[in-house]
Design brief:
Largest sheet: 7 strands, mixed
Helix content: 10-25%
Structural class: alpha+beta
Strand order of the largest sheet: 1-24-25-22-19-20-2
Strand content: 15-25%
Radius of gyration: 23 Å
Shape: globular
């Protein structure tokens, strides 16, 4: 689904200096996973949300389910009678060669015993075997599944999800906290005709509960086409909180339009907004309740930087970058230098770089996105992101897209962009679900290229997790602004002093880049980095 993005959005978070990023493709992504604790696996992105099953080839998002009639091993498309061998879709497998489709989703991707399927199917005609259909709609990346009427129709470790006639066999979620809710009783129309950000939007209510040991939580609401904007929140004690004030500490709710991520707390001054009990989120949305989706991701990690060690997993995607692909990435000294530097910097908040997955982009997206010529293309590129698995651990990962270069005049010197402050956690395929970097400092003559890129990538990841610049450079009539944190210094005189003379020059979130060995992260900044659900326990 293509999501329109406003041409009037404020500028994305830009960092002028050396920046590196990886990119992914929806069209033909192939790659591997480097997992410190498990075997490697191919790239797959799946999520059971009870989505629709595609009917015919002309309407891949429809809800009709029909038997494709392929009782033997013939091509279900009807146009090719070649006999194919291997397991039907939904059958167990160990390797791709075990499947008629040539695609086996493995246990370390969340599919016990392996799972034969057709990835990126468009209709049931793409699937192999009778009583198979293409799962699409709200599903994060289409794939073929076996239909069922109850759990007895599914093999061990799989359950029958959905509703008649579209139930299908699928592995259970590790955690329900990442299963999106779309169009349920949890979303109710409260009133009509509220004046929200200059538009007449319906007001919806979403109710959810947080556990007794909660320390932070993220709320993400989205829709494929219409604006989604949380405007208020009722706390467990009945207090009504105006999210317009809180949005001053976020960049994305208005700029992304069709997806709205909120992470709480966005600094120590908002600790009181996180408490156990029932919350009600008030959302401006110009559409019926059954089309609105949301997810709540709560966490229990200690936000103190001196407390437990956390980690951030990264999905790196290469978009036509010369000399780099998923096969050689883990052998690159420059990428190794980049990751070592990132790890050093994140360590200031007691966070490590966790699992790294590499993917290659192929086909039309390479031609379209290897050189970003307009700012909005970066937002379109990250919408190609897919989940690398169905487990909570896999879903909570950040997407980083490497391109060849940025070309727009307004982005001269820019080497990296975070598409949100914060970015969208736990939901892929939307605007705001990744970072975009130029690989221009990799593969060159700069011996510090990897280190330089590592510092800029850490800076942009800081934005993605929720950090603003310590000082915002004045633009036009807008004065110098700060990040609203009491323990970070500010530079109030950009016009008359050199950048190195600013008191916040060594802070990770200083707005200009230079290689620095004495980088700093304040306790408040560390709390924000740790509050984001993408920062998680290594054993999660």
């Amino acid at each position: 689904m293509i999501i329109p993005v406003s041409k009037n959005r404020p500028p994305a978070s830009l960092f002028v200096a050396a920046l590196l990023c990886l990119a992914m493709s929806v069209m033909a992504a192939c790659g591997r996973t480097i997992d410190r604790d498990s075997d490697t696996g191919s790239d797959t992105q799946v999520q059971d949300t009870g989505g629709d099953l595609a009917g015919d080839a002309d309407d891949a998002s429809g809800s009709d389910v029909e038997d494709d009639g392929a009782a033997d091993g013939t091509d279900a498309s009807g146009g090719d009678s070649t006999v194919r061998t291997g397991g039907l879709d939904g059958a167990p497998c160990v390797d791709d060669s075990d499947c008629m489709s040539g695609s086996c989703l493995r246990p370390n991707q969340g599919f016990p015993g392996g799972f034969c399927t057709v990835l990126d199917c468009e209709s049931r005609r793409d699937c192999n075997g009778p009583a198979r259909a293409c799962l699409s709609g709200q599903f994060d990346g289409n794939l073929c599944v076996q239909l069922c009427t109850d759990n007895a129709d599914c093999r061990g470790d799989y359950q029958c999800y959905g509703g008649v006639p579209g139930s299908y066999c699928f592995p259970p979620f590790v955690s329900d906290s990442l299963a999106p809710v779309c169009g349920s009783d949890f979303i109710e129309l409260n009133s009509v005709g509220e004046d929200i950000v200059g538009r007449n939007l319906d007001l919806h209510e979403v109710t959810f509960e947080l556990d007794d040991d909660v320390t932070s939580f993220a709320f993400v609401a989205w829709h494929g086409q219409e604006m989604v904007l949380p405007v208020g929140m009722t706390l467990p004690d009945g207090t009504e909180y105006d999210l317009e004030d809180y949005a001053l500490y976020l960049y994305t709710p208005v700029s992304l339009e069709t997806v709205a991520p909120f992470v709480f707390p966005a600094g120590p001054q908002f600790d009181e907004l996180v408490a156990p009990g029932e919350y009600t989120m008030h959302i401006g949305f110009d559409g019926p309740a059954e089309e609105l989706c949301f997810v709540v991701i709560q966490d229990t990690v200690d936000l103190d930087v001196e407390a437990e060690e956390l980690e951030v997993d990264l999905n790196f995607y290469f978009v036509g970058v010369d000399g780099f692909d998923s096969d050689n990435a883990d052998e690159s000294g420059e990428l190794s230098d980049m990751l070592i530097e990132m790890d050093r910097i994140l360590g200031l908040a007691n966070i490590d770089v966790g699992d790294i997955r590499y993917f290659d982009v192929a086909g039309e997206p390479v031609e379209r996105f290897s050189v970003i010529r307009e700012q909005d293309e970066a937002f379109e590129l990250v919408k190609l992101s897919r989940q690398p698995g169905i487990t909570r651990d896999a879903i909570l990962s950040a997407n980083v897209f490497f391109i060849r270069s940025f070309a727009p005049p307004e982005m001269a010197g820019v080497l990296g962009i975070s598409t949100g402050i914060p970015g969208v956690p736990g939901v892929h395929t939307q605007a705001g679900t990744g970072l975009v970097f130029s690989a221009s400092f990799l593969g060159g003559d700069d011996p510090d290229g990897g280190k330089r890129v590592g510092q800029v990538l850490a800076h942009e990841l800081g934005h993605f997790l929720g950090l603003f610049h310590t000082t915002e450079q004045p633009v036009g009539d807008f004065p110098v602004q700060s990040d609203h944190l009491v323990d970070t210094p500010q530079c109030d005189d950009f016009a008359n002093i050199r950048a190195r003379e600013c008191p916040d020059f060594n802070n990770l979130m200083f707005p200009f880049a230079a290689i620095r060995d004495e980088l700093e992260v304040s306790p408040s900044q560390g709390q924000i980095l740790r509050a984001n659900p993408l920062s998680k326990r290594s054993d999660q």
